[in-house]
Write a structure and sequence with these properties.
The structure is a single chain. This protein is an alpha+beta fold. It has one domain: Alpha-Beta Complex (Nucleoside Triphosphate Pyrophosphohydrolase), CATH 3.90.79. Helices cover 19% and strands 38% of the residues. The protein is built from two helices and nine strands. Strands 3, 4, 5, 6, 7, 8 and 9 form a seven-stranded mixed sheet that branches. Strands 1-2 form a two-stranded antiparallel sheet.
Length: 145
């Protein structure tokens, strides 16, 4: 694809790039906070979403968590980046996953229909690659213990 430079009119290449996203593993009590999505794909998922223009990954994670769960979170570590081109059926995304803690009770908001806390043993079927993300997280927890 080619676009024109608005200043000089020369042809410049336009690239189709992956979209940055964030997902947040919020540890609350003895489990992790998950949201049930209002929008397709309709399934349980980690809180998260697209990074807005001018926003850092950390700012996006805090904003998305608050919008979807009502929780003011404290990020304590960047966990991993997931970049499989097929991880999201809507488009190619690259997700940075953060670990966070929170206090209080989650309340569904924005594009979350429900919110709940799940233990590793009681996880529901998950959207996207979130089952893999949580499997990686719980495996890392067992290794660290």
């Amino acid at each position: 694809m080619v676009k024109q430079c608005p200043a000089c009119g020369q042809a410049i290449p336009a690239y189709k790039n992956p979209t940055p996203t964030v997902d947040i593993i919020i540890i609350l009590g003895n489990g992790v906070v998950l949201i049930k999505r209002k929008n397709p794909p309709l399934a349980w998922a980690l809180p998260g979403g697209f990074v807005d223009y001018g926003e850092s990954l950390e700012q996006a994670a805090v904003r998305e968590a608050l919008e979807e769960t009502g929780l003011a979170i404290k990020l304590y570590r960047q966990f991993h980046t997931y970049s499989d081109p097929d991880r999201d059926p809507r488009q190619h995304t690259v997700s940075t996953v953060f670990l966070a803690t929170a206090t209080g009770s989650p309340v569904a908001g924005d594009d979350a229909d429900e919110v709940a806390i799940f233990s590793e043993e009681a996880l529901p079927p998950l959207a996207f690659d979130h089952a893999r993300i949580l499997a990686d997280y719980f495996a890392a927890q067992r290794t660290a213990a």
